[in-house]
Amino acid sequence: MIGIIFITALIVWALIALGLSKLLWVIFRFFVNPSQKGIEVAQSPWQTLRNAVLQLLLAMVIFFSPITDEIVAYPKYLEMCQEAGKYEFASSMDSKNAYGREYVMKFKDEKLVSLFPEVRELTNNKKPNSASVKKITVHLIDANTNELILESKIVVPVSSLSAIPWDGRRIPWLLHSCTTDNKESNELLAELKLKQVYRFGSN
């Protein structure tokens, strides 16, 4: 049901974009050649094709304009995603010292980052309307000694200009959650023989 509504909304918006592009093209033609108002002017096949292509391009610009912030932010977001899920040793830790430990996973240092029109860290708690993400530091901490073993980061999209309201959240169209399934990190965890333990209610 939700899929049908989504597809229907896209079709309706596409038709609106086509209609607006045609209207804007007529207005443009009028201002370029006001003397030809109301006069049918014969066009060559090349002119007809050119005008159709230009109207189609204009329609595409209108169609994608609501997600302009996500389109601009997407390359930087991909760069962040490539780093997400990569574990690094703590400054006082190495593979020998980390081997075979039990750990708890803790999430620290949540930072709200705006990606449009430029990348900047936000210091207030108010979520922006444009493309933005939350960067969260993940700590793997020794369950017995409380030493930091490994750390990583995850990136979670939180908003955009035309984000879809869903279940109390706003889901962007292009900025989907980054995968944290990093092959190198998975191999590192397996090599170190680390075992995760759970402590409910721990911070």
Structure characteristics:
203 residues, alpha+beta, 2 domains, two-stranded antiparallel ribbon
Concise structural overview:
With 203 residues, the chain is an alpha+beta fold. The chain has helices spanning 2-32, 45-64, 68-83, 95-98, 183-192; strands at residues 88-89, 102-114, 120-122, 132-142, 148-159, 164-166, 169-171, 195-196. It is built from five helices and eight strands.
Per-chain topology:
Layout: H1 2-32, H2 45-64, H3 68-83, E1 88-89, H4 95-98, E2 102-114, E3 120-122, E4 132-142, E5 148-159, E6 164-166, E7 169-171, H5 183-192, E8 195-196
Parallel strand pairs: 2-8
Antiparallel strand pairs: 1-5, 2-3, 2-4, 4-5, 6-7
Helix pairs in contact: 1-2
Distance between the termini: 40 Å
Instruction: Give the number of helices.
Output: 5
Helix content: 25-40%
Q: Provide the residue-averaged pLDDT.
A: 86
| Strand portion | 15-25%
Task: Please trace the helix and strand order, writing H or E for each element.
Answer: HHHEHEEEEEEHE
Overall description:
The protein is an alpha+beta fold. The protein has 2 domains: 2-66, no CATH class; 68-196, no CATH class. It is 40% helix and 24% strand. The strands form 2 sheets. Strands 1, 2, 3, 4, 5 and 8 form a 6-stranded mixed sheet that branches. Strands 6-7 form a two-stranded antiparallel sheet. Helix 1 crosses helix 2 (45-64). It is elongated.
